[in-house]
Backbone:
């Protein structure tokens, strides 16, 4: 079949540009250490921040939920309903986020594209931070609203763009913790700008839920802004150690999403096991703040150590620590070198990050030991001494 031969050429071009990507295959539970190709490696790139994905309590809860409600959910909620367990979890997440209601999607990706497409249409503008997650970008495209990109975390720029007018409604959307940089959006100012311009607000707390705030409620909780935005997006796939996404907000918002969010209406409801595990995780997130304290401790250790070694580390305020390299081939070499030394963290390259900002994106997990951090630093020290650093 030569109709599809072009793929072979495109793949070769990607390889040539150090942009071809291949996922690693993991043979173990996704814990602080994993086995890849028969080698034990420190996992330094997972979003399983609290280490709950491998927690026995979540695994048991998944099993119990599967026994009670089955392995699959059969159809989308509007067709064959949602389980009592899912509805209970929605109400618990609403309380956790300080909102009236919540609706669960099969993933955070689907939650983002669903909420943006449900809230904005062709006559509207979506104001989006230039470093927002791809699912937000895709949601903007699907909505057919006019996207307006503002400079990263630049509220003056946002305000000047909003002031231009010429649209029906405005929606401001931002990550709270940015997924490739680990910094936090200026949410207090954003809420203020939105209020003055009567703009709707969607804040994606994918990397903050469970990690930031006294009860793990996210960046909004940490900043005293619970209940101050129209829609809070979150995922059950990261700190909550399971799978699925959600949107929390008013009762009207939830009802509107059930009627208009295509990524829920035309998607089979999450499997009961995922709901069971996430439900167990939510309890642990609130009752074991020591896991958040541990992340804070480990990130300080790692950031200081990397800076001492001369690495350029970003302005992280979360469990995500970017180590900037620059060019893709350099980032690949550094990633390969630390992997030889027992640390697994792939190079993050365009299009995931802007050109010229390829990096190793490190994450700390509550279940990493001090020894794991020391080994990561040893690997980076050796890589630097061997000249893998640009
Ligand atoms: C991971 C991520 C998502 C998607 O969540 P999934 O549950 O993995 O689909 C959405 N937004 C941000 C900022 C993310 O990092």
Residues:
């Amino acid at each position: 079949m030569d109709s599809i031969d072009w793929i072979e050429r495109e793949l070769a071009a990607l390889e040539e540009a150090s942009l071809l990507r291949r996922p690693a295959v993991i043979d173990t539970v996704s814990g602080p250490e994993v086995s890849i190709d028969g080698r034990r490696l420190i996992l330094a790139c997972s979003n399983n921040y609290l280490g709950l994905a491998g927690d026995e309590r979540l695994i048991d809860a998944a099993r119990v939920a599967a026994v009670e409600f089955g392995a699959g959910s059969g159809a989308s909620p509007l067709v064959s309903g949602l389980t009592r367990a899912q509805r209970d979890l929605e109400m618990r997440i609403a309380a956790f986020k300080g909102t009236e209601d919540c609706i669960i999607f099969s993933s955070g990706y689907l939650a983002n594209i669903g909420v943006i497409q449900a809230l904005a249409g062709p006559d509207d503008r979506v104001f989006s931070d230039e470093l927002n997650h791809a699912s937000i970008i895709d949601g903007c495209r699907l909505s057919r609203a006019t996207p307006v990109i503002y400079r990263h975390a630049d509220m003056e720029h946002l305000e000047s763009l909003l002031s231009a007018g010429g649209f029906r409604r405005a929606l401001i959307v931002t990550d709270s913790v940015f997924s490739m940089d680990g910094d936090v959006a200026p949410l207090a100012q954003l809420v203020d700008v939105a209020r003055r311009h009567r703009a709707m607000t969607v804040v994606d707390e994918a990397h903050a839920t469970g990690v930031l705030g006294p009860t793990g409620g996210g960046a909004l909780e940490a900043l005293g802004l619970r209940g101050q935005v129209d829609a809070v997006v979150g995922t059950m796939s990261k700190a909550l150690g399971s799978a699925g996404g959600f949107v929390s907000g008013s009762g009207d918002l939830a009802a509107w999403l059930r009627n208009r969010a295509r990524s829920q209406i035309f998607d089979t409801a999450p499997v009961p096991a995922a709901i069971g595990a996430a439900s167990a995780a939510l309890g642990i997130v609130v009752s074991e703040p020591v896991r958040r304290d541990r992340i804070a401790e480990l990130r300080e250790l790692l950031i200081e150590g990397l800076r001492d070694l001369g690495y350029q580390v970003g302005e992280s305020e979360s469990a995500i620590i970017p180590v900037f390299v620059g060019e893709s081939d350099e980032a690949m070499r550094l990633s390969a070198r630390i992997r030889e030394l027992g640390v697994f963290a792939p190079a993050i390259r365009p299009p995931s990050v802007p050109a010229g900002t390829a990096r190793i994106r490190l994450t700390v997990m509550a279940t990493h030991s001090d020894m794991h951090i020391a080994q990561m630093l040893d690997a980076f020290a050796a890589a630097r001494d061997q000249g893998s650093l640009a």
